[in-house]
Write a structure and sequence with these properties.
alpha/beta, Rossmann fold, eight-stranded mixed beta sheet, two-stranded antiparallel sheet, 8 helices, globular, disordered C terminus
Length: 305
C-alpha cells in the first residue's frame, strides 16, 4: 500500500510516498529512501521500496527540496543542490516517520543512493535516531569527483565561473545553470559520461530537469570523512565493480576508515546498474538482508493480522 504524503521541513514542504506492507498491523520498522544528484523519487526508487515493503518494512520516499514534487525555500532557486540542506531534510523525514503511529520510532533506518549514499552516512553519523544505514554506489568525495571530471587546465576557469555567479546572484541576477548530463562528452555538464546520459535522458519529460545551478557544483563536501563517526550504528556499503561515476576504490578507502559493525557488498556492472537487472537484484537483496538483521529482530508473529 502506497500513500502520497507531505511533511514540513522547517517551512519547506517536502512530498513523497509512504509505503506500508499489506497484511500487518502495529508499529513497523521504517526505512527512509533518498535519491542522488538531481534525481526525483520516480527514477528507480520504487522497486527498492516495493521490495522492502514486501518484506515487512514501512518506507518513506521523498523528493529533495527544490526538486520533483517538493517545494523550495523562500528566496532560493529550484534545482539547487546543497548537501547540508538535503541532510537536514533527511532528518525531517526521520522526524515525520517518528511521529507516525504505525512506525516504531526505535527502528528507523536510512538508505541512500549515489550522492544521497554519502548523505546517508553523514545523517547516520550525526543523528542517533538512525539504527542502520545503507549507502549504495555512494559519492564520498566532492574534491576527487571534481578533479576527475574537470581537466586540470580548466580548474581555475571553473572556480572563476563560480565566483562570478556568486557576484551576479548578489546583484539579484538569476543563478547560472549547468546541464546534469550531455550527449556530447566535450560539452560542459556535471556528468559527461555516456552511461550517465543514457540513464538520465530516459526521464526527459518527467519531473526531472536536466539542469542544476552552477553553485551546486561547488566542491567542499567530503561525505566520506563522516564514515569514521557512524559506529556504533550498523553500516552497509554496496559498490559497483565498474563504477565510473563515483569510483568504487574511493568509497572502499572511506569504508576502511569506518568501525564495526559494517559490511561491504559488491554488485556487478556500473553505477547505474544498481537500478536494473542483476545489479538491482544484488543491491536490493543485500540491503534487505542487512535491514532484516538490524531492524526486524523485535518483530513477532503477533504483528501479523
Amino acid at each position: 500500500m502506497r500513500e502520497d504524503i507531505e511533511f514540513d521541513a522547517e517551512g519547506v514542504t517536502l512530498r513523497g510516498w509512504f509505503y506500508r506492507p499489506d497484511g500487518v498491523s502495529g508499529e513497523l520498522p521504517c526505512i527512509i529512501l533518498t535519491h542522488g544528484f538531481s534525481c526525483t523519487k520516480e527514477m528507480g526508487l520504487e522497486p527498492f521500496a516495493d521490495a522492502f515493503a514486501d518484506a515487512g518494512f514501512a518506507c518513506v520516499v521523498y523528493d529533495h527540496r527544490g526538486f520533483g514534487a517538493s517545494d523550495t525555500a523562500p528566496g532560493k532557486p529550484r534545482q539547487e543542490i546543497d548537501p547540508w540542506e538535503q541532510i537536514h531534510d533527511t532528518q525531517h523525514a526521520i522526524t515525520y516517520a517518528h511521529g507516525r503511529p504505525d512506525v516504531d520510532a526505535s527502528r528507523i533506518a536510512v538508505w541512500g543512493s549515489s550522492y544521497a549514499g554519502g548523505n546517508a552516512f553523514v545523517v547516520a553519523a550525526i543523528d542517533r535516531r538512525v539504527k542502520a544505514v545503507c549507502g549504495q554506489v555512494p559519492a564520498v568525495s566532492g574534491r576527487r569527483n571534481f578533479e576527475a571530471v574537470v581537466p586540470k587546465e580548466y580548474w581555475q576557469m571553473a572556480w572563476d565561473g563560480q565566483a562570478a555567479d556568486r557576484l551576479a546572484r548578489a546583484r539579484g541576477e538569476a543563478p547560472a545553470m549547468i546541464p546534469v548530463v550531455t550527449a556530447d562528452p566535450t560539452a560542459p555538464a556535471v556528468m559527461a559520461t555516456r552511461n550517465a546520459y543514457e540513464y538520465f535522458s530516459a526521464y526527459e519529460g518527467t519531473g526531472w530537469r536536466n539542469e542544476v545551478t552552477l553553485r551546486s557544483t561547488e566542491q567542499g563536501y567530503e561525505a566520506g570523512e563522516f564514515l569514521k563517526f557512524v559506529a556504533p550504528t550498523p553500516l552497509l556499503m554496496v559498490l559497483a565493480e565498474d563504477d565510473n561515476v563515483t569510483p568504487a576504490e574511493w568509497a572502499k578507502e572511506a569504508y576502511n576508515t569506518a568501525a564495526e559493525p559494517k559490511k561491504l557488498v559488491w554488485m556487478p556492472g556500473g553505477h547505474f546498474d544498481a537500478y536494473t537487472g542483476e545489479g538491482f537484484k544484488v543491491a536490493s537483496a543485500a540491503a534487505l538482508e542487512f535491514f532484516t538483521e538490524h531492524l526486524s529482530h523485535e518483530v513477532s508473529d503477533s504483528a501479523l493480522v
